[in-house]
Amino acid sequence: MVTRLNPVAPPPAVPLGVPVLRRLADLLTIGRALLGLPLLLALSAGYSGLAWGLLLLGGLSDAADGALARSAGGGSVWGARLDPLTDKILISAPLIWLAALGVLPIWAVWLLLARELLISGWRAGQGSGGPASLAGKAKTILQFLALLLLLWPADWTLGVPAGAAGGFGLPVLMQVIGWWLFWPSLLLALSSAWGYLRQGRLGEGN
């Protein structure tokens, strides 16, 4: 009696566009990491408009590489490790600058940076970054918005007279809104970090 062996099913084919999408997402991640130093140099040299544009470019690239990774059914393992670290690099430069100017309390900035380094280090050690939690996504969005408003150039009035912006002028109004947005982002960062520590899920959030 001859026993027939069932043929082993071949692994599912990977669409040709998937490697390209993942490679593009990784390139955007690398480019975002490289924006940190030029951003800090622009702030130091007084080029506030350039610094604002670089930060906006970094935020848009973060959204773009996330969209590309989702289109590919998930990013590369290497990209998943690097992506959260690049966000921290890009955000840390203006945070440190604003703390040095006294715009933000230095204790709050160092507390936030310590949290980011702690969680990012643990995530990197997990072998895969894992999907960002809802709180992590909200925290990152609030951080970018707060920094964009806090770094709003003083000469960008957009034709709005001072009396029409609470009597302070549009740049000051933007900075005040940014200052208030910073605190919810800090609370979200700390609460999500506590959740990871309490539940032992340090590799599952941003």
List keywords for this structure.
single chain; 206 residues; mainly alpha; 7 helices; 0% strand
- Average of pLDDT: 78
The global form is globular
Which percent range fits the helix content?
55-70%
The CATH topology assignment is Four Helix Bundle (Hemerythrin (Met), subunit A)
Count of spatially separate domains: 1
* Major sheet size, sense and barrel closure: none
Explain what this protein looks like in three dimensions:
This protein is mainly α and about 210 residues long. The chain has a single domain (about 15-200), classed as Four Helix Bundle (Hemerythrin (Met), subunit A). The chain contains 7 helices and no strands. Helix 1 (about 15-35) packs parallel to helix 4 and helix 4 runs antiparallel to helix 5 (about 105-125).
In short:
With 206 residues, this protein is mainly α. 68% of the residues lie in helices and 0% in strands.
Task: Outline the secondary-structure elements.
Blueprint: H1 17-33, H2 36-44, H3 48-71, H4 77-101, H5 106-124, H6 134-150, H7 170-199
Helix pairs in contact: 1-3, 1-4, 2-3, 2-4, 4-5, 4-6, 5-7, 6-7
